[in-house]
Amino acid sequence: MFLGLITYPKLIFVCCAVFLAGFVDSIAGGGGVISIPAYLLSGLDPKVAFGCSKTSSCLGTTLAAARFIKNRTVNWTVAVPSAIGALVGARIASLVVLALDPVVFQKIILFVLPFVAVFLIFKRDFGQTDESADVPKNRAIAVSAVIGLVLAFYDGLVGPGTGTFAILAFTSLLKIDLRTASGTAKVFNWASNFASMVSFLLAGKVIWAMALTTAVCSMAGNYVGSGLAIKKNPAFIRVMLSIVCGLLLLKLGYDVLF
């Protein structure tokens, strides 16, 4: 047994899932679709599972963000205001999460996802070039802040797919290429994960031994995935986005129906 909570085989299963989640998340977002079910299947209390997930994700995203920053694939005009918006949005979500029904948001996203997936499949030139210079700076800052606020609020209520939606929003609304959008989304993701992690820590819902063990796997996955995202062309990220959208569709559909 690991701390009297789960067996070592289950711990190994969670660690492998978290590694894969970090790998996917660092490229196209949506890692929560893989990691959160794995934590829950281990037998942890749902709130503790989410607390450990947010903690390991925050540490993993830190490494991925650092790699993107080092390779100068972050648009700071977008990253900073979206991160600030994320801190506010995640905090608001933590205050209202008990008063709202997350299923409402899941149904909305469930309706939207098929259109996103079809768009990515047929719009092969999506996010191939960076045209962010065509967007006025003041508009970019304002739109980025709103994106951060709204998506972090969604992250606090529902969770899976936040990074994916951030990449899509940055690319479609702010004309950033997919590689830069992926790097920029990591800064936003870090802020959102950090705010959520603090909320769970203050509520005493994080088991540090578990969170830090899986964090190592999350960091390893994020390191490998961010390296591929930096080296590959945007078409690779577009394919990953399509796959993640499919996984999200299945996950949210299952949650709503069952």
What does this structure look like?
There is one protein chain. Helix 1 runs antiparallel to helix 2 and helix 4 runs parallel beside helix 8. This protein is mainly α. It has 10 helices and no strands. It is globular.
Per-chain topology:
Blueprint: H1 8-28, H2 32-41, H3 46-70, H4 76-96, H5 102-122, H6 137-157, H7 162-174, H8 178-202, H9 208-231, H10 234-257
Helix pairs in contact: 1-2, 1-3, 1-9, 2-3, 3-8, 3-9, 4-6, 4-8, 5-10, 6-7, 6-8, 7-8
Proportion of residues in β-strands? under 5%
Which structural class should the secondary elements be placed in?
Answer: mainly alpha
In total, how many beta strands? 0
Q: What characteristic shape results from the CA principal axes?
A: globular
Q: Domains counted in the coordinates: how many?
A: 1
Overall pLDDT level: 80
Radius of gyration over alpha carbons? Answer: 17 Å
Distance from first to last alpha carbon: 31 Å
Extract low-pLDDT stretches: none
Order of helices and strands: HHHHHHHHHH
Our count of helices gives: 10
Q: What is the makeup of the main sheet?
A: none
Keyword list:
single chain, mainly alpha, 10 helices, 258 residues
Concise structural overview:
The protein is mainly α. The protein is built from ten helices and no strands.
